[in-house]
Structures are given as structure tokens and as C-alpha cells.
Amino acid sequence: TVVIKSHYDIHCATLDESGSSLVRALCLIDWTPPLLICAFMEYMRPPILKTIEICKIPIDYDHHYKFFTLPMEKAKALKDITLSDGITIRRLGVEEAAIANDLWPYKKTGSLFFLRKIAKYSMCYSAYSSTNELIGWIFIDTSGGIGTLHVVDEYRGKKIAQALVVKLCQYLGGTLKIDPHAFIVETNYPSINLFKKLGFIENQELGYWIQTKGKNDH
After folding, report:
1. Is the dihedral of CA 80, 81, 82, 83 positive or negative?
2. How far apart are CA 7 and CA 42, in angstroms?
3. What Pfam families does the record point to (predicted)?
4. Residue 183: enclosing H or E segment and its boundaries?
5. 120, 127, 142, 194: least CB-packed within 10 angstroms?
6. What is the DSSP letter of 147?
7. Domains in the chain: ranges and CATH
């Protein structure tokens, strides 16, 4: 059983089918500040919910996501997408992560720290207009899969999101030699259609995120 607390995020995994060791480990965490329990699968849900009950942790939201995977060999074989209007794709740096956070409609407390950390230690990609304006980005998720993907409104419909996903899949499959995976909100039909178009397979198992409230905030 492993539990990792990284700033605002909690990551955990266990081979203990009873879940008791995961409960014991999670109960050692200070749940006073708001924390996000990230990307856990169905089999870990009972011990996590039991921990929430034991520690009396207030919940902000409890969301489930569809889980998609792409075989490594198919990821390696994906071809670059040709973009028009002088749009280019390149690696995203730490400085660009701050710009992405400012433009991101879903930014929140801790998101700047999260994006900068991912940009510093992982391979992420950005899309730039012909005038060198940041117009889209994709980050590796802390679970090791495809994370934040966004294209600013006025540049949608130009295959930028597809080009970004392809670039990251090539890296995950070709360099890291792992099967790319993604968690997608079940009502995000444009993303679901895009990933299926690229060959991603929808799994029966769901992924979950639980955002807690600070114990002093309720």
C-alpha cells in the first residue's frame, strides 16, 4: 500500500484486497486543509469512503470519469497532425505553465503550483499562433496519463487538440513505453469523440476524484 501527499494532491494504491492497510495509511494524513484524492479506481473506493467517514472529512465534490486507454504500439504509430495558419506545437515550459493557468477557465487554489510542477518534471506540449501567442496546451496527469487539455475558444475547430493529444501519446508510447490513458467527464462528448477517433478504448471501470473541504471551512 502506498499513499503520497503532494501539496494539495493525494495519490494512493494498494494490493491489499481488504483495503484495511489503505484506511490506516490515509488516516495518518492531516485532512485539515482542502485536498484532492486523485485518479483512483473503483476497487479503492470503499476504503477511501471509509476513511472519509472515520476522519469526518467534509466533501466538496465526488466525481467519476470514463477511463480510456490506448495500446502503446498504436500510440507510437500515430502521425503528426499538420496545422494551418502558422500554428506550431512545442514543449511547454514552466513559464508557459503560469500563462496557461491564467487562461484556464478551471483554475483554482493550487492549480498554478500543480501545472508548474508538471511542466518542470514531465513532458508537456503547447500550441502557439503565428504571432507566438499561447493558444492551447496538454499536460501529463499526476497519474501518468493524459491530463489537462485545453484550446482557447477562438482557435477551436483547427485540430489543435488532436495535434496535442497525438504529440503526448507519441511520447508516452514511444519514449516512456507505456499505454496512454485518460479520464474524461462522461458528458464531455467532443473529447470522448476525439479520443475514440485516435483509437482509445473505453474501459468498463470508472476513475474517481474526490475534493475535500478544509475542516475549518464548513
Report:
1. negative
2. 24
3. FR47
4. strand 181-184
5. 120
6. E
7. 2-65+206-212 (3.30.1370), 71-199 (3.40.630.30)
Instruction: Identify any residues that bridge with 150 across adjacent strands, giving them in sequence order.
Output: 137
pLDDT profile of the chain (218 residues), mean per 10: 90 94 97 92 94 96 94 96 95 93 84 89 95 95 87 95 97 95 93 97 92 78
Strand bridging mode 36-41 / 9-13: parallel
Q: Is the CB of residue 81 less than 8 Å from the CB of residue 163?
A: yes
Report the C-alpha gap between 193 and 70 in whole angstroms.
Answer: 14
Of 125, 126, 141, the closest CA to residue 184 belongs to 141
The DSSP symbol for 172 reads: I
Q: What is the DSSP letter of 33?
A: S
Beta bridge partners of 12: 3
> Residue type for 25, please?
A
Angle between helices 160-170 and 189-197 (to 10 degrees): 50
